[in-house]
Amino acid sequence: MTILTRRSFGALIGASAATLAAPSLLRANTTGRLVIIGGGFGGASAARFARITYPEVEVTLIEPYPTFITCPYGNLILGGKRELPQITHSYDGLRARGVTVLQDRAADIDPVAKSVRLASGADVGYDKLIVSPGIGLRWGAIEGYDEAAAQIFPHAWMGGDGSQITLLRQQLEALPEGGVVGLAIPGNPFRCPPGPYERISMIAHYLKQANPTAKILAFDAKEGFSKQGLFQDTWAELYGDMIEWVPGNQDGKIVRVDVENKLFISEFGEEHRVDVGNVIAPQFAAAIARDTGLADESGWVPVNSRTFEANAAADIHVIGDANIAAPLPKSGYIANSTSKTAVAAALAEMTGQPAPSDPVYFNTCYSHGGADYGFSVVGVFRPTDEGFAETPDSGGISPRGPLSELAENRRLEASYADAWYDSITRDMFS
Amino acid sequence: MTRISLIAAALGASLLAAPAFAEQPTPLIAQGCAGCHGQSGEGQGAVARIAGYDRDAFLAIWQEFRDNSRPATIMNRIAPGYTDEEVQILADYFASIQ
Fold first, then answer.
1. Runs of H (alpha helix) within A211-298
2. Do B47 and A423 touch (CB under 8 A)?
3. H or E segment at A278?
4. Longest CA span, chain B
5. Is the ipTM of this complex over 0.85?
């Protein structure tokens, strides 16, 4: 039997008040209210895990979009291997599990009154809050790149309503014969470290069939990237000289775009004309995390490495791409994996169950390089007193070597990637 | 409503809820497996089913992945990241699923 602390007693009173005020939310045996901002890999996983593991807790999910379009596998739309409906997920499965899904935007958080203000004006009280809002783009960090410019040079780096990835796909289809596709890739940290390079691969996969004399110019603010050797092996092996990657130390950093004249302008003033421009703009945590003071001056949110509670506020746990958790990557798998520790830590006191003592955070990021051509990076991470650390002598990337020797390996990993997508989206939405 | 939940409602939910409602929860350590192997280790596509796996076989194969003596694509990179104690929790849990 649990000792009822002053704090959980207060929570109980709060819960009763809320259920009386909102009869539609009335549920038997509610011990408290878990509110989750953001219905992506972190938030949807948290909501589902909470309903299964702590059925006595009332769970509300606040998400502005009616469906969730995953960023993972978005690149396969560009490669012609998937269509948008195949990466679009409904919240009905979570509703059927008893999650209250509010299609609305979280506009503000009052950590003292413990409530979330919705864009529609309503307030949603919480006992524990999970914030998993994802990223925002730093409009203007690349001069000339704002929301209007993104209609010419799409970023396609947030699922949203699907219009960005659709636009980029349409532009690739309309690329003139032998045309140039330019990508601008940001410095660290950013969402999905291998993502830009999988995108290059999938665009090349499409162009190799549809427009084989086309060129891909990938301008990078960095000198190195995730699974670099594997990607560069793939490009050389499958796509010949179609792809040119320009690192930061060879003037690869794009600092300005001119959408009218379709120009990328580099740090040292070089102008590159592109027919299709994909600007993966520099990022920070989504607005709700910055506007409420959860984020620090870096634009990302510092958190406790065992509970994901924000350093800036009690009872608010920040997961997914918005937080600072390096060397954990900003990946869907990490958002999913850490969401469960965050929920267990947040609800331990309220439900009388033990808080996680030695959590392990698990990640695998698969990438598709071509048809039946997959590879991965694995990481097993743990909290430390200073933050997070990768477990020594574990993890790492798929073996490198000639395709003639590794074809079966690549084929298997491509099929594992597909299985991962199906499993993890079930772990979020079913 | 079950008898237990009626009592819980009468006494105040938080007093009884946790122990009364906890059915064999998935150990948090096993949640990392769900991303590929499924929530209950049921497998998916080319990814192996591990639900109902014999405990001793699970431990033996894990060790083979760990010392790279078994052909593997990614499990040989995952296996060394977990302690013996953690692997035993995983083996017990997946063996317990029907």
1. 228-239, 287-291
2. yes
3. strand A276-279
4. 58
5. yes
How far lies A285's CA from each of A137, A338, A372, B61, in Å? 8, 17, 34, 41
Residues of chain A in contact with residue B28, where contact means CB-CB under 8 angstroms, are: 340-341, 344, 356, 359
pLDDT in tens, chain A (430 residues): 233 333 333 333 334 334 334 433 444 456 899 999 999 999 999 999 999 999 999 999 999 999 999 999 999 999 999 999 999 999 999 999 999 999 999 999 999 999 999 999 999 999 999 999 999 999 999 999 999 999 999 999 999 999 999 999 999 999 999 999 999 999 999 999 999 999 999 999 999 999 999 999 999 999 999 999 999 999 999 999 999 999 999 999 999 999 999 999 999 999 999 999 999 999 999 999 999 999 999 999 999 999 999 999 999 999 999 999 999 999 999 999 999 999 999 999 889 888 898 999 999 999 999 999 999 999 999 999 999 999 999 999 999 999 889 999 999 999 999 999 999 999 999 9
| 3-state SS, residue A270 | coil
CATH 1.10.760.10 for domain B26-96: yes
User: Which residue is listed with tokens 């509670």?
Assistant: A309
Domain chopping of chain B, boundaries: 26-96
Mutate to test the interface with A, among B37, B73, B82 (most CBs of A within 10 A): B73
Quick check: A49 contacting B, CB < 8 Å? Answer: yes
